[in-house]
């Protein structure tokens, strides 16, 4: 089914525009809430992925978070400079760089679940449980998951 045509396409009503606007809203609010931890929302994603063992290399993080490798490298540089993570060469394949959180990185990552839910809950305060379930279902469908 074709939902958009050149005749009915209005940028502000397009799903793409609305998703970007929603993402930017959450990023801005999350960045403000994480300010006390001195990390950004994007850095939060990296730290949680590492803490929850969902990724361990820059490539895996880039793929999971949808961040290009150049930006990923810059963000990892910042986190490493701050002493929140370390890079090490894989023992079996020296081309692979493994990432791990430092003790300080773990401490910061462990504080994120005390902050991030408040940001999301504030944005979702007018949603019923059923609406949130449906939103998640629709987003998974949109993403092809």
Description:
- It is a single chain.
- Strand 1 and strand 2 (97-101) form a beta hairpin.
- The chain has a two-stranded antiparallel ribbon with strand order 1-2.
- It has one domain (11-143): Arc Repressor Mutant, subunit A (Orthogonal Bundle).
- The protein is built from 6 helices and 2 strands.
- It is globular, with a radius of gyration of 18 Å.
- 60% of the residues lie in helices and 7% in strands.
- It starts with 14 loop residues before the first helix and ends with a helix.
- It has helices spanning 15-33, 41-51, 58-65, 69-81, 103-123, 129-143, and strands at residues 85-89, 97-101.
- The longest helix is centred in the C-terminal third of the chain and has 21 residues, at 103-123.
- With 145 residues, it is mostly helical.
């Amino acid at each position: 089914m074709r939902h958009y045509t050149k005749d009915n396409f209005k940028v502000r009503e397009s799903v793409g525009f609305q998703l970007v606007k929603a993402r930017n809203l959450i990023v801005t609010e999350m960045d403000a809430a994480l300010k006390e931890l001195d990390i950004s929302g994007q850095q939060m994603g990296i730290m949680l992925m590492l803490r929850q063992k969902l990724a361990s290399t820059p490539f895996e993080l880039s793929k999971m978070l949808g961040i290009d490798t150049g930006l990923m490298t810059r963000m990892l540089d910042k986190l490493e400079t701050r002493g929140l993570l370390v890079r090490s060469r894989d023992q079996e394949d020296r081309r692979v760089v493994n990432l791990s959180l430092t003790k300080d990185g773990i401490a910061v990552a462990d504080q994120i679940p005390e902050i991030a839910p408040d940001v999301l809950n504030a944005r979702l305060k007018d949603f019923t449980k059923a609406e949130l379930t449906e939103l998640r279902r629709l987003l998974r469908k949109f993403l092809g998951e």
